[in-house]
Protein kinase domain-containing protein (Cuerna arida), 279 residues
Amino acid sequence: SSLRTGPLSGTYRRLEMQLGGSLYSCVNVHTQEDLVCKVVGREANSLLTAHYRLDCHPHVNSLHEVLLGDKLMYLVFPPSHGDLHSHVRHRKRLREPEARRLFRQMAETVRACHEQGIVLRDLKLRKFVFADPHRSELKLETLEDAVLLKDPEDDILQDKRGCPAYVSPEILRSHARYSGRAADMWSLGVILYTMLVGRYPFNDSEHASLFAKISRGHFVMPECLSSRAKCLIRSLLRRDPCERLTADDVLLHPWLTREERYSPPAHHQDQLVPDCVPL
């Protein structure tokens, strides 16, 4: 990626905001290449640093170019082929072979972030987009909302950020200090459950009721899932953050390392994943 000083309008024409996201569609006025653009303040240096640390990772969206304006910074990325949230909504739920292939890519991405001292905080289905029209390769769209740890060994955070359906129980406690990495792993568990079941493990139209359900940590595990999938979900959605798997642990789990032939019962009803509004 290149770094240039100057306004966006000199090279790109900004179009409409992408549906359900925080990126603008844009087009290079010289090459007519379609791209997407994230507009942030000039002070967002940690976001830029995080992207540069992961710039070569196959499942993190690479920066095409960075433009520095007087007060704003424009991060230009390659376009995508839709996001994972919309894909799951359209398909109702994913079969285990497809979910396994996609979830492995997400777990590898989270592991790379954690190794680089980056906590994602707002980890959810919509953050992952497809890099190819066949929808087989995922990329983390941006590192917006991620935090760059000053000390990679100390991931204790205090601020509360995230989509309500994905937040972990410890974040909901008042004045709580929590492990950022462990909170990411809870969100990864919510993602896996939602991909396989077609609904969130904790769901309620009222935030207070939703947060009460999350705090209790009780959710329904459908019989349609394989035993290994159930095991992995339970190992991620543990109320005690110390008991949750790490990203390294997830990638060694039998559900990901051993292919399993499993046919779900025919009576399982399709669900619909609702939209998720931020906290």
